[in-house]
Design a protein that fits this description.
The chain is of the alpha/beta class and 592 residues long. Strands 3-2-1-4-5-6 form a six-stranded parallel beta sheet, sandwiched between helices. A four-stranded antiparallel beta sheet has the order 7-10-8-9, with no helix packed on it. α16 links the parallel β1 and β2. The protein starts with 6 loop residues before the first helix and ends with a helix.
Length: 592
């Protein structure tokens, strides 16, 4: 989790992720303590104020692991709503451990304030050391290991750093997992962070599986059945009080559209750090066995119910836009498309590829807009002064902002097939006539795109294989015409199913392949050339050699399609069209 956290991701949403989270934690803590007080009055399960506050502490944070998995499975990583959700969840986790240490020691104030606050002070010292000295020396240690170019040693070093940080934090009376989490944060923004994350992927997946298995094993089914009404009531109260505060916080911070709905339905799972909190409470004698089992059931049930409730985000948001917020502002506040944008091309996903295409369209003076869900790519596009809209292209509101109803073509350039398919379907719901271009890797994807009536499907692997074959054959001195005819036939057979259904596609494909049949070569007129100081017509080049002059490069000026009356001079660089025999003939009469 620490490796997947980046300070660069938090920076654009710093105010809501930090100050908004602090406000939410404080309000949730008050509400949770009030719930515990009522439980203490009615059921008598809480005797001390510190145990009530510790009960509330267990529910102030959302499970980063669960929402990461949910967002990843829905291909929503990189959207603004996902960044706000993950950013606030991580800051929640960072606040829980200090909060737990403070609340857990409130009952020990009789032994002295210094003794009670000692773990908090040690935890703060540990955090400062990790974020300063650790951020300086840990990457240097990994740099030394990386020089050995050993994958196994690198993974062992990363694991050792995490375990060492956890051991030190545990020795300083802070959670072991909190120390490992800080080690991940220290590594995340270093140049070895991504490599460490990729190397630890198999380990992470294994322990994630064991984590959820252990949660299932911890659940006391008999207790859950006996106390099901109480568990259900507290699950509703603890989860939706937190998510309601999160939704209102983001709303008042100016994050509108789908984000408050995503916070309300997507942040239901209670954080796995709650297990650390209730374990500490049980060890300190603040929680009885029944309270421990009760909180455990609530947390586990919230993790089970969370992904299912997250599915309500899109339909509820769509319903609210249609019937409740019909007159509200429909566009976000980041970048608005030009007001006259119509008959344009919408490019979704693609990152650097999308920006390259946009630059070419700008050169051709064709209207376009990029819809970018990744904030870094969005910022890169803005720096390059491209027309870009920041948001989730699967969202109806974002597509409306991109004016999909007036668009002529949609280019779906996401790397993942599900994202492209979802965007295509969403766009076609608004504009059934929009042309679509995308790419595919597998036959099943191509078949699905055919069923969606996608206009053109690019197969990158197939096109790359054709280009590599072309280079091989040309290096074997096979005539260029034979090479192009061979590859043209292979391409035609491969795309036959699509070409036969579209005459325009067939014409464009054939025109594209004919480009390889035109042989253009360059010739520099030497001194004392027989053609120098004579016009093209006087030189009679076409009839004498069969070649044609397509252009003349003279100094910094290029003359395209020169007139027969134009003269040739020494030092001119001529762009000639012709085969090898015609080229040889021209070189003979020009003296080159």
């Amino acid at each position: 989790m620490g490796l997947e956290f980046s300070k660069n991701d938090i920076r654009p949403i710093f105010k809501i992720a930090v100050w908004g989270t602090f406000a939410q934690v404080a309000l949730t803590l008050c509400a949770g303590t009030f719930i515990a007080w009522i439980l203490g009055k009615t059921l008598g399960i809480f005797e001390h104020f510190s145990s009530m506050m510790l009960f509330a502490t267990a529910f102030v944070s959302t499970s980063t692991a669960v929402i990461l998995k949910t967002l990843s499975s829905k291909n929503q990583m990189g959207t603004l709503s996902s960044k706000v959700m993950i950013g606030m969840s991580i800051v929640q986790d960072l606040t829980v451990i200090p909060l737990m240490l403070i609340v857990g020691k409130l009952g020990n104030l009789s032994s002295g304030t210094g003794a009670a606050l000692r773990p908090l002070i040690l935890g703060a010292v540990f955090m400062i050391l990790m974020m300063t000295l650790g951020a300086k020396w840990v990457p240097r240690m990994l740099q030394s290991v990386a020089k050995l170019n050993s994958k196994e040693l690198f993974m062992l070093a990363v694991t050792g750093i995490a375990l060492a940080a956890g051991f030190l934090s545990d020795a300083m009376q802070v959670s072991f997992s909190f120390g490992a989490f800080l080690a991940g944060i220290v590594l995340s923004d270093s140049e070895y962070g991504k490599k460490a994350l990729s190397e630890l992927m198999p380990v992470r997946d294994l322990f994630a599986m064991l984590f959820f298995v252990s949660i299932g094993m911890m659940l006391d089914c008999n207790y859950l059945i006996q106390k099901f009404p109480l568990v259900l009531l507290l699950l509703f109260l603890t989860s939706f009080i937190r998510t309601s505060i999160l939704a209102l916080t983001t709303w008042f911070a100016g994050y509108r559209n789908v984000i408050p709905f995503a916070m309300f339905f997507g942040m239901v799972p209670t954080s796995e750090i709650a297990f650390v909190v209730i374990q500490a409470g049980k060890q300190d004698g603040l929680f009885s066995g029944d309270v421990y089992s009760l909180i455990l059931c609530i947390v586990v049930c919230s993790m089970i119910a969370g992904p299912a409730l997250d599915n309500l985000t899109a339909p509820v948001y769509k319903f609210s836009r249609k019937y409740i917020f019909r007159n509200s502002q429909k566009m976000n506040n980041f970048v608005m498309p030009p007001p006259t944008l119509s008959d344009h091309i919408i490019i979704v996903g693609g990152g650097a590829v999308a920006r390259s295409i946009a630059k070419l369209l700008t050169t051709l003076k064709l209207p376009y807009i990029i819809v970018e869900s990744d904030y870094k790519s969005f910022q890169d596009a803005r720096k390059e002064k491209l027309t870009v809209l920041y948001g989730d292209p699967q969202s109806e509101i974002i597509l409306e902002a991109a004016r999909v109803s007036q668009a002529k073509l949609l280019l779906a350039a996401f790397a993942a097939f599900p994202e492209n398919l979802a965007v295509i379907k969403a766009a076609r719901e608004i504009n059934g006539k929009i042309a679509v271009v995308t790419h595919a890797e597998f036959q099943e994807e191509i078949q699905t795109y055919h069923e969606c009536q996608v206009n053109e499907i690019i197969e990158p692997a197939f096109e790359a294989s054709l280009e590599m074959t072309r280079q091989i054959l040309l290096n074997l001195n096979m005539p260029v015409v034979d090479v192009q005819n061979c590859l043209d036939g292979v391409r035609y057979d491969h795309y036959r199913a699509m070409i036969e259904g579209s005459r325009d596609f067939s014409i464009v494909t054939r025109m594209r392949t004919f480009l390889g049949l035109v042989q253009l070569y360059w010739v520099s007129l030497p001194k004392n050339s027989p053609l120098a100081n004579h016009s093209i017509a006087e030189s009679n080049i076409r009839s004498r050699t069969g070649s044609s002059i397509a252009g003349i490069l003279r100094g910094d000026t290029f003359l395209s399609n020169p007139d027969p009356s134009d003269k040739l001079f020494e030092g001119d660089i001529l762009a000639m069209i012709g085969n090898q025999e015609q080229r040889n003939a021209f070189e003979r009469i020009s003296g080159t």
